[in-house]
Design brief:
164 residues; alpha+beta; five-stranded mixed β-sheet; four-stranded antiparallel β-sheet; 2 helices; 15% helix
């Protein structure tokens, strides 16, 4: 009976280990005068806007497309920057599929610093009513602490759409 219990216990331990996510590890900046920015869109309960992808811009320059369950890793010069989520992209490199309003977020980055910014898309409960058909969303950029971001990013993949 004991060998059977040890085999069962071993299988249960292995099954528990297999379900854990790989921890996310932030990459340091290559140039000490720059800062690293992670813009990410983790899984959400209702998968709001999960079938869409938005272009991310830094100071008006396209830097990549952000899809549900992906992240962009950007190295930018330290200083003040405006981050924009938009559906404007329509180039040979990629085409955005985002029908929401543009969202902007301004931040001052320190040399060598790392900023984590989560994209949150959720149903707008004040506008989604029985008398107002259709779906409305609230979309926000949320700065996150490194510890919270690492947990939220554990199962995310890098965005496949970044400029060369």
């Amino acid at each position: 009976m004991k060998p059977c219990c040890s085999i069962l216990l071993t299988l249960l331990l292995l099954a528990g280990c297999a379900g854990q996510s790989t921890p996310f590890v932030a990459q340091p900046v290559k140039n000490p005068d720059n800062a690293r920015v992670y813009v990410y869109w983790p899984a959400q309960g209702w998968r709001e806007k999960a079938d869409e992808e938005a272009e991310i811009q830094v100071d008006g320059v396209p830097v990549g497309l952000l899809r549900y369950k992906t992240y962009l890793s950007l190295e930018v010069p330290a200083g003040n920057h405006e981050f924009r989520l938009t559906g404007e992209a329509d180039s040979a490199a990629w085409k955005a599929d985002w029908d929401g309003a543009d969202q902007t977020f301004e931040y001052r980055l320190k040399p060598g610093g790392i900023l984590f910014v989560r994209l949150l898309a959720k149903f707008d409960q004040s506008k989604n009513t029985l008398t107002n058909p259709g779906m409305s969303y609230v979309v926000q950029f949320l700065p996150r602490s490194a510890n919270v971001a690492r947990m939220e990013m554990a199962s995310l993949k890098p965005s496949p759409h970044v400029p060369n």
